[in-house]
Amino acid sequence: MDLKAYLKEQCQRIDGALDLYLPKETELPYSLHKAMRYSVFAGGKRVRPILMLAACQAVGGDTARAIPAACAMEMIHTYSLIHDDLPAMDNDDFRRGNPTNHKVFGEAIAILAGDGLLTEAFKLISDPLFAKDTPAEARLAVIREIAVCAGSYGMVGGQVVDMESEGKEDIDLPTVQYIHTHKTGALIKAAVVAGAILGGAGERQLAAITRYGEAAGLAFQIADDILDIEGTTEEIGKDAGSDEARGKATYPAVMGLAAAKLEAQAMMDEAMRALEIFGAEADPLREIAQYIVQRKN
Amino acid sequence: MDLKAYLKEQCQRIDGALDLYLPKETELPYSLHKAMRYSVFAGGKRVRPILMLAACQAVGGDTARAIPAACAMEMIHTYSLIHDDLPAMDNDDFRRGNPTNHKVFGEAIAILAGDGLLTEAFKLISDPLFAKDTPAEARLAVIREIAVCAGSYGMVGGQVVDMESEGKEDIDLPTVQYIHTHKTGALIKAAVVAGAILGGAGERQLAAITRYGEAAGLAFQIADDILDIEGTTEEIGKDAGSDEARGKATYPAVMGLAAAKLEAQAMMDEAMRALEIFGAEADPLREIAQYIVQRKN
């Protein structure tokens, strides 16, 4: 398959749907809706929504059914970035080369834009307008999966432990594992599980996709840690080596660079094995995972 | 009916369920779950969840069905208070006589505790464990109603306009109406509409409950504005006259105190009229509304 063309096409579908679903800048309150849109359209690669569509396809589902939930997933990802960048959190002025939300709109609007995006995500999945013949039970299961993975037992919990570990000397491997599987891994897993549910997956398919999501999610984050060390500032769009400078808990920091690379590969192998029950319909899931782990930015 | 005994009993039901549903302080991340619980159990009167149960009862439903959504509503209300109190927003050090969340746990944890509570709310309503024979379609409709009313077209939108209006000289009535119907009114309306849906309301009942919620929600907020002027600091648990000192957009500020009192009464009358199609089963809704508008704190 032509992965580049596939990613471009799916990205365009997602962007078009996001533009349709998000409140317009011409609707009150203008400042809020402008801020919400600013960060959603600030150059994200739409990894999570594309993974959701790919998982839906892998189990033989109609990907059109997964578009609203895929957009909801991107809204949740975007809200988490807006809040993470706040002065009280990571205090970042730039993301993907653009000023962060609070630098443009101020802290108060940035907090509320994040809150608005998180709420909008659940509104979107529960909207009967976009149900597309998906059974109500499946939509509830998707809401549940996403809320568990985005909440205090998932992404939000991972961010807390990440923050509390920053600068500490004696971070151990279980802590880094907790941070990675929660802060980034959980939402990746939720994306593919939700895609499989919306695609009408059977039990065996769902278990395979879940294993894929867990392994790939961890592989992505270890690859990210490695990229922070090996990439150039130009390639990764932020200061190279910033994790180390900040005393961030990373795989290379606790086990060394070589072992971290082996671990990323082991996770990737596990993700590929999980997909063995599928045929060519899971090729997008396979190729996206390989691409993300080998990427240079 | 003995309103005091009724409120106490419902409050205990809600508090017991919240304690059951909320993540424990002994679960990772401890600091986050401690912060989430701190604000949920900081002396709230549980107005929104009790209204939800009362609306469920008014339409002849089993109130046990509405308990999870009622708790979800309180979590959303609590998250909004935590974020509103942040230094970047209203910068309040105390709420109901206790230090605000960020004063105890720091800004970062306060932001994340709010995020966690908002997410937990949607997890709770979509949890099959607590479905209690409620049809999936009804639970989806409740999620949708709450998300619309809590999001950028509802509560979050109201907070933005409230903040942007603070200290401005020329605030007009439509702006104050927008703030009140969105910032507080929307969640009150969502509470009773959700209760009615979970109680299995027919179309006519749902329309009546919606009208009640809109009118009562506005009456509550005007009463709050009046209380800020007429109450003592001791009675209302915050500095009396603080709205005026801050240049807040309120009904008394734009139309004078006497006219604001008439407007609150007119809204209350409308709320009572909306309930005329119900018998004694709507007495809790009637009495709660009267009580809240006449309260001294």
Describe the structure.
The structure is a homodimer of 297-residue chains. Chain A is mainly α and 297 residues long. In chain A, 71% of the residues lie in helices and 1% in strands. Chain A has a single domain (3-294), classed as Farnesyl Diphosphate Synthase (Orthogonal Bundle), CATH 1.10.600.10. Chain A has 15 helices and 2 strands. In chain A, strands 1-2 form a two-stranded antiparallel ribbon. In chain A, helix 7 packs antiparallel against helix 9. Chain A starts with a helix and ends with a helix. The model of chain A has no long low-confidence stretch (mean pLDDT 94). Chains A and B meet through helix 2, helix 6, helix 7 and helix 8 of A and helix 2, helix 6, helix 7 and helix 8 of B.
Features:
15 helices, Farnesyl Diphosphate Synthase, mainly alpha, 297 residues, 71% helix, homodimer, two-stranded antiparallel sheet
Sheet-strand content of chain A, in percent, reads under 5%
Estimate the helix proportion of chain A, in percent. over 70%
CATH class of chain A: Mainly Alpha
CATH homologous superfamily identity of chain A:
Farnesyl Diphosphate Synthase
Topology:
The structure is a homodimer of 297-residue chains.
Chain A: H1 3-21, H2 30-40, H3 47-58, H4 67-85, E1 94-95, E2 98-99, H5 101-105, H6 107-126, H7 136-150, H8 155-165, H9 173-198, H10 203-230, H11 233-236, H12 242-246, H13 251-255, H14 257-274, H15 283-294
Antiparallel strand pairs in A: 1-2
Helix pairs in contact in A: 1-4, 2-6, 3-4, 3-9, 3-15, 4-6, 4-9, 7-9, 8-9, 9-10, 10-14, 10-15, 14-15
